[in-house]
Amino acid sequence: MYDKTVRRRRAVLGLLVVSSLILLTAYFGEPAGGALHSVQRGVLQVVSPIQEGASRALKPVRDLFGWVGDTVSAKGELKSARRDRDQWRASAIRNEAAARDNRQLRGLLGLDQAPQSLKAFDPVTARVTGSSPTLWYVRIFIDRGSSSGLQVDQPVIASDGSGDEGNGLIGKVETVASNSSTVRLITDASVAVAARTVSGNATGVVTPKVGNPRDLILKYTRKDDQIASGDVVVTAGTTSKRDDLAAPYPPDLPIGRVTRIDEPGSESQEVHLRPFVDLQHVEWVQVLTKKVDNNR
Amino acid sequence: MPPITPKLLFRAAVLGVAVVVIQVAAVSQVLLFGTNADLTPLVVASVGLLCGSLPGALFGFGVGLFVDTALVQTMGLSSLVFVVAGYWAGRLRELRDPQAAVVPMIVGAAATAVTTIGFGLMNFLLGIDAPVSFLLLRQILATIVLNALIALPVFAIVRRWLSPVLPEDPRRRRRRAYTTGGLSPLSRA
């Protein structure tokens, strides 16, 4: 009897491990349009309305925790305001949600009115309904999909509502269902964005610093490029008549501001940027759905 | 180990779906001490601790599969690490049956470490490029500490949700009889 129980337990464990490995192998072996990827898109379609509902329902809780987190991190600055905190807490939580939405939407409107005229790219506004919980897949989920004209690889911009410098590129569309999509953020290890500095016209590729979403690195700059702390970095947006060579992002989308340069003046210099958008506080995004002059 | 009844399956399924939805829709978006809590390994470990190795491993597999499917991740990866966490927590209960109040906290922290580090190792083995940095290690450690802090309430909620379908703990029954005036099992013997 004992042997039978032990054997059954081990058999089930072995079966589960083998099933996981088979799934893993099959997933890696199949193309993006394969059966398992299709299942994922189907589940995304079914789960996204639930996720969206939960996101809205849990927003006050999220805001409450976010508020607590912000308060803890800004403890020193808030010393003088501590006495008033309890009095204002209840009303602040009620008002915070509406105020943040308002700020972010106004920020997005500001991007619409930027000189590069993003209106030409038919931006579609979407609400963030969730974010991936792992360190390895840096994604967010949005409530618009193919029915709104979204396609894979379209660039995504956002505002975190913190002011003029809180607007910019945050990633690109990765998976599309009919009414929801996933966005791979620029802080994901697999994302690289061709970029240039606004003042010195130095060019390079922006990649993330894994583990720190507030630090990006501009790689492959030349040693004689004129780069200084405080320079603004934007998308390079190279164009080409060949679709496969064109950059997926239009030119001049703000990415971040240079904070420091490691090994300046050498071939291996690394330029560190602070992204304009604080990705932890994004609740609204815009997807650029139309190609203009061979830019997305 | 409790029998795997339809009621237990139903409650476990609801728990699995709810935890993933809450994780994605709320917990992942709340930054505390520079990191996010991760409820999934805590819940998987709690189910293992309450139900045993086999239900723990099955629940881990199911939750992992749902996580990978719903979050559009590499399928099979989360299942593999959650199977290990659920099975290991269940075996701990079956072999040692630890009773200290901090057990869920320690097991939660260990399950988080197993899943986070296991997930990272699997990613490296699969060639998903991400440099190991001090920041990444710091974030993993912060997640483990944060999860350890919230492990007790999470365990309490899971126990409350599953307790109607679990057989009553004999120790608890004995303790209740003894404290309410019944004879101690020792004196009866």
UniProtKB/TrEMBL annotation, chain A:
Against Gene3D superfamilies, the record matches this protein to: Rod shape-determining protein MreC, domain 1 (2.40.10.340), Rod shape-determining protein MreC, domain 2 (2.40.10.350)
Q: Where is the Rod shape-determining protein MreC beta-barrel core domain?
A: 128-288
Its GO CC terms are: plasma membrane
Q: Which InterPro entries match?
A: Cell/Rod_1 (IPR042177), Cell/Rod_MreC_2 (IPR042175), MreC (IPR007221), MreC_beta-barrel_core (IPR055342)
Q: What GO biological process terms does the UniProt entry carry, in alphabetical order? A: regulation of cell shape
The UniProt keyword set, sorted, is:
Cell shape
User: PANTHER family, alphabetically?
Assistant: CELL SHAPE-DETERMINING PROTEIN MREC
Q: What does this protein do?
A: Involved in formation and maintenance of cell shape.
Family, per the entry? Belongs to the MreC family.
Write down what this protein is called.
Cell shape-determining protein MreC
Species of the source: Baekduia soli
Automatic annotation (TrEMBL), chain B:
**Keyword terms, alphabetized:** Membrane, Transmembrane, Transmembrane helix
Which domain of life does the UniProt lineage start with?
A: Bacteria
Q: Which residues cross the membrane?
A: 12-35, 42-64, 70-89, 101-128, 140-162
Return the protein name: Rod shape-determining protein MreD
